[in-house]
Amino acid sequence: MKRTNRIKNILFFTVLGVLAxxxxxxxxxxxxxxxxxxxxxxxxxLTLAGVMDGSFTGEIxxxxxxxxxxxxxxxxxxxxxxxxxxNRTVTIIGNxxxxxxxxxxxxxxxxxxxxxxxxxxxxxxxxxxTLPPDTVPPDTGGPVTDGEVLGSxxxxxxxxxxxxxxxxxxxxxxAQAINRAHRLLGGNVNIYSIAIPLSSGIxxxxxxxxxxxxxxxxxxxxxxxxxxxxxVHGLNIYxxxxxxxxxxxYFRTDxxxxxxxxxxxxxxxxxxxxxxxxxxxxxxxxxxxxxLGSFYSKTLSEDMKGNPDTVKAYVPMGTNRMVxxxxxxxxxxxxxxxxxxxxxxxxxxxxxxxSDQPYSYAHNPQITDGSSCVVIKDSFGNAFIPFLIxxxxxxxxxxxxxxxxxxxxxxxxxxxxxxxxxxxxDNTTSNGAVGLVDRxxxxx
Length: 444
Prior knowledge:
Elements: H1 2-24, E1 32-33, E2 38-39, H2 48-53, H3 55-66, H4 71-83, E3 148-150, E4 153-156, E5 159-162, H5 168-185, E6 190-196, H6 199-203, H7 206-212, H8 217-226, E7 233-235, H9 238-242, H10 259-273, E8 284-291, H11 294-299, H12 302-305, E9 309-315, E10 321-325, E11 331-335, E12 359-363, E13 372-377, E14 394-399, H13 407-414, E15 418-424, H14 431-440
Parallel strand pairs: 6-7, 6-15, 13-14, 13-15
Antiparallel strand pairs: 1-2, 3-4, 4-5, 8-9, 10-11, 10-12, 12-14
Helix pairs in contact: 5-8, 5-14
């Protein structure tokens, strides 16, 4: 017995010593987690105040744990172990999230300075970092009826969905920002607002939405549009997406919509503008397989891993060339639809529009009428922009989270005729996101 215990102790301390040595090898420490798709905690800055109050030691502990060289291996192993627990198909309800009531628009906006409701943070609102087969997954097969809530996403088998909880204060502020842009830019500029529904609002069975306590996305969009000035074009693309809810409108392993979902939104914009949309068969189609997006990163679901998404993209006819400027102002020539065959599985969505750069521009030499538009977008807008290229000579797009200029200055400098807000619904109601929209449209 003593011999056995001695062997166990030797093995335990040997493993412990090996792990300690690995942890001490600084060059092995990662700066980014490929599994979690996020930047890891940086080494803290040494300051006298931090040493005196003990915070420096605490930050060292966080850095050490977050950047341990085998972190991703352990996370994958833990997830694999969880997958052996069995198939969990019961809906878990009551995760603590709830939305504000959506009033009739005639009640008017709330005061933008009133206390804000706590913003709901979902995968759809988290900004993504830009990184340099032929079989499409099956259609959704109609409304989803069961699964489980994990945080602020809903998981059902090999698919996950973004959840929406309405925030009235944020919605009021967003409408006020759009109205302010309309007032500042005058009647010579057309302003369009497209609030993009999240996947649960389109793909969930109505009774499931009610059981989970989700807010009505169609009603939320109608409320926002109802607060806008008569001269603003508020589009409600909910109905056109809902009419195609048995098609591949949203990725299963990622929070974004597909290019097909974006295409239907584009047809609604064309209807509002009074122009004929192009049909999908007019475009060159690109296909990128093996996409495992943000939902996979958050859940590390073995079911998702076994059935990744396929990204389809449609190349503009007039040009596939663009220029983007990064946060430092450095300009780079790029493709509107970029070949991402060699990219990692989590980066396939980066094929669209240069991803999330602060400022981008494309010139279509096939059009010479001086027409122009600017798209104020989040990452959902990336899949939407390629469809606009063949309708304007000049197309600009800015990511409202990263652009440091103002919309009014850009429109006046470039002589832009159409301003198109294209944000996912959560970003049109979240206080944090709407605050960035406010920053983009200051009073003159």
